Amino acid sequence: MAFDAYVKREFKQVGTRVARPDGVDKVTGRALYGADMVAPGMLVGRVLRSPHAHARIVSIDTSEAAAMPGVKGIVTGRDFSVPKDEFLADVAVNCLAQDKALYDGHAIAAVAAINATVARDALKKIKVEYEVLPHVTDIDVAAKPDAPVVLEGRALETVPAGMGANVTHRCEFGHGDLEAGFAKADKIVERSFRTAATHQGYIEPHACLASFTTDGRADLWVCTQGHFYFRTLCSEMLGMEASQLKVTASEIGGGFGGKTTVYLEPVALMLSKKTGRPVKMVMTRDEVFRATGPTVSTSIDVKIGMTKDGRITAGWADMRYSGGAFQCLTCEMGAQAAFAAYDLEAVQTVGWNVMTNRPKEAAYRAPGAPQAIYAVESVVDELCQGLGLDPLEVRIKNAAKKGTKASYGPTFDDIGLLATLEAAKKHPHYTAPLAEGQARGLSCGFWFNFGGNTCVTMNVNTDGTVGIAEGNPDIGGSRASISLMAAEELGIPYEKVRTIIADTASLGYADTTDGSRVTFAVGIATINAARDAIRKMCKRAAMLWGIDEDAVEWKDGAAHPAGPNAGKFPPMSLADIAAKSFQTGGPIAGHYEVNADGAGVSFGVHLCDVEVDKETGATKVVRYTVFQDAGKAVHPDYVEGQMQGGAAQGIGWALNEEYIYGADGRLQNPGFLDYRIPVASDLPPIEAVILEIPNPGHPYGVRGVGETSIVPPLAAISNAISRSIGTRLQELPMSPPRVLKAIKGAA
Amino acid sequence: MSVTVSTTVNGDSVDFVCAPDETLLDALRGRLGLTGAKEGCGTGDCGACSVTLNGRLVCSCLVLAVEAEGQEIATVEGMAAGETLHPLQRAFIDHAALQCGICTPGILVAAKALLEKTPDPSDEEVRYWLAGNLCRCTGYDKIVRAVQAAAAEMRRA
Ligand code: FES
Ligand code: FES
């Protein structure tokens, strides 16, 4: 594998808690997010959405709306040609429906008008004739052969004959002899679980400002996790060349995977093209819930066998995932992640995708993994309970380690799972006495992490400062981490470095900010761009000294003659070399482009204590500790932030959050009042314990940290609740009514 | 129909013309260019639009712009004194109490209102006071610490 190997070193700046460069703008209200941009002559765009879960669009009459004063343009699905590529076609059809509305909230048409009021009024004048069709929103019902069919002919060849038309994909992973494995077990537990779809819940709704000029060029300002990918999607849908569309990423008010695909953007561009004016579009919260995000909803069976002394002999899971009204391959992630934490002789996981009349799934932090691992970790816990074993010891006994053949195929290199489990065991939380009525739960978590395409340009300014242009929107402090790595490598103070996120016209392609890839992959590119700049600076110093360039080395931010034979010259600092650059060949810049490999998987362990109110069924999390391997924490504050934030989202998922559909197929809780994410008073302090087991695939040992943290809370809390109430819930969220029902059922 | 509103924002007298059903949040953001207050929901559920009206903490998405007539409004843009950040602003940076930062203006305004009334709050008081301000990124831990650090600093001053 062509990755950039880890070399042990003493860090001077990496690992310190410096102030982030965008901090002042963000605490003063100056930072510009998606909805904060304006343009002269700007129109306001609004979307008309389907009130039906499933309906044929017989006709759309926009004439009355178009005739209204102040209405400047209207678009429908007919304004777009559906791309041939099936994946792209799904994205396009999700932005504006073609012949069918596929879920409550599916976009049908959009209006651009002189202001929001006129635009809203115009939507009411668009006449859509629907032929309402039978719908299905429940995954288990949708999988049946006689279920209403969401879309015909979408099944891949992976699906065996005889399945319902909504079943569109099957995948399988594993190794070993399951039957023999289960035969060796002293105890076998098989259970079924269901998890509700949840939303990423970013506080900033989707927003963009599109401006098309009459010569076919366009600018797009947008809150996105990946402006380069947005350029690809939008230019394909609008039939533009990539170079003609410049996309600038605004500051982004949270994404968690949900801002990795387009919704409004192609529509805004088309409206701008049609009207000849800039068009701004911002979703309401209701639209965000009904038409963007959510995760898959799932239905999962798990069977695990264990010996009396806690060795897992075999693991099997069959997991049905619904990614909404389109094809969705997230089941592959779940099926691969389910047993990743274990060193198993016999393991098999089967994943399925099932279409339902729900919004198109969007990635959410470790997509597919929390659900799968929740089911597996619940069964492992039940086995521990049944056999009277310590759940942490059992995990240590079965933990995947270097050399383990992972359940999804590869053999692990250096991984931090054992170290993480040992840290949890040693931590005072694990042995702290529990108060009356409290119980403790734990779970492992895992995520693959990703590398991918990245470009970095590093400009050495003549005053001795350094400017970095990179292409990944910064959601959680990555500009600080990138500046830190540059400062470390160059040997100059952090304060001398400024990192910006360049628009799509200014830099080569960058993959989206996802897969916990930014600090890892942009880090590799930054370190290597610095090395490129250093080579160039050494050459300039050699020129000024009149010696061979090989006779110059870089130390502590300056060029030095390498050894006594090179000649005696005082060190020449980056600032000295930069100041003379116009005389030595012109400006100095380092560059690096890479499709980074070797991201290095990440494991975490969460411990939690809960208290269940037996009268109301409400669960209070009273203590919570996160242990996670970061490889190397470049900026520990923001690593802790990822660990705490993921845990909080997982706690919400476990206890409260769910998409609730009525019998009419409409989403019943599209607002923060009824879709309740954790608030400050719901949560205890969340302690974050960072482990550093260097990733062999990164020069500083960095691993991605953003996603693993959402994986363990689901089972950790479920395991704690089941120990508290003496019976196990098999459905998420464990909302008060469900917990109460379980308590009553057990009594 | 439009209405002229005369009000005070962060100590400055301002006039603007708005529709009678326009929210204070829309007027601040759209008419006055003060985009520090954010719209996360428009229904009073997220607190991203928090400002104070005569010192009282409100969701500006639930206040009509015309209600600002003759009143005093304070937004996040008025928290720093020139180049000097408010202790809360400084503490939020120093304690990494923000990730994406979209909730930050509302939380700062809310926290300032808390500390004006309760200079020495318990962690629980901070958590309950901020329960109307959603943050999806941080899990609130560092926010609570930052508010306490700022409170301690303000008590010393
Ligand atoms: S925008 Fe006002 S409370 Fe959410
Ligand atoms: S920092 Fe992102 S919502 Fe609070």
How would you characterize this protein structure?
Chain A has 20 helices and 27 strands. By secondary structure, chain A is α+β, with helices and mostly antiparallel strands. Chain A folds into 3 domains: 2-31 and 451-596, Aldehyde oxidase/xanthine dehydrogenase, molybdopterin binding domain (Aldehyde Oxidoreductase, domain 4); 35-133 and 205-252 and 259-291, Aldehyde Oxidoreductase, domain 3 (Alpha-Beta Complex), CATH 3.90.1170.50; 297-449 and 600-746, Aldehyde Oxidoreductase, domain 4 (2-Layer Sandwich), CATH 3.30.365.10. The longest helix of chain A has 28 residues, at 518-545. Chain A starts with 22 loop residues before the first helix and ends with a helix. Chain B has 157 residues and is α+β, with helices and mostly antiparallel strands. Chain B has 2 domains: 3-78, Ubiquitin-like (UB roll) (Roll), CATH 3.10.20.30; 87-156, Orthogonal Bundle (DNA polymerase, domain 1). Chain B has a 5-stranded mixed beta sheet, sandwiched between helices. In chain B, a hairpin with a 2-residue loop joins strand 1 (3-9) and strand 2. Chains A and B meet through helix 1 and helix 18 of A and helix 2, helix 3, helix 4 and helix 5 of B. The complex binds FE2/S2 (inorganic) cluster (2 copies). One FE2/S2 (inorganic) cluster (FES) binds next to loops of chain B.
Q: pLDDT below 50 for ≥5 consecutive residues: which ranges of chain B?
A: none
> Helix/strand-derived class of chain B?
alpha+beta
Q: Which architecture name of the largest domain in chain A does CATH use?
A: 2-Layer Sandwich
CATH superfamily of the largest domain in chain A: Aldehyde oxidase/xanthine dehydrogenase, molybdopterin binding domain
DSSP strand count of chain B: 5
What radius of gyration of chain A results from the CA coordinates? 27 Å
Provide a count of the helices of chain B: 5
Element order of chain B: H for helix, E for strand: EEHEEEHHHH
Strand order of the largest sheet of chain B: 2-1-5-3-4
Largest β sheet strand count, sense and barrel closure of chain A: 7 strands, mixed
Largest sheet of chain B: 5 strands, mixed
> Total domains of chain B, how many?
2
Looking across the biggest beta sheet of chain A, what order are the strands in?
A: 3-5-1-12-9-10-11
CATH homologous superfamily (4th level) name of the largest domain in chain B? Beta-grasp domain
Helix content of chain B: 25-40%
Question: Uncertain regions of chain A: pLDDT < 50 for 5+ in a row?
Answer: none
The Rg value of chain B, from CA coordinates, equals 15 Å
**CATH structural class of the largest domain in chain A:** Alpha Beta
Q: Into which percentage range does the β-strand content of chain A fall?
A: 15-25%
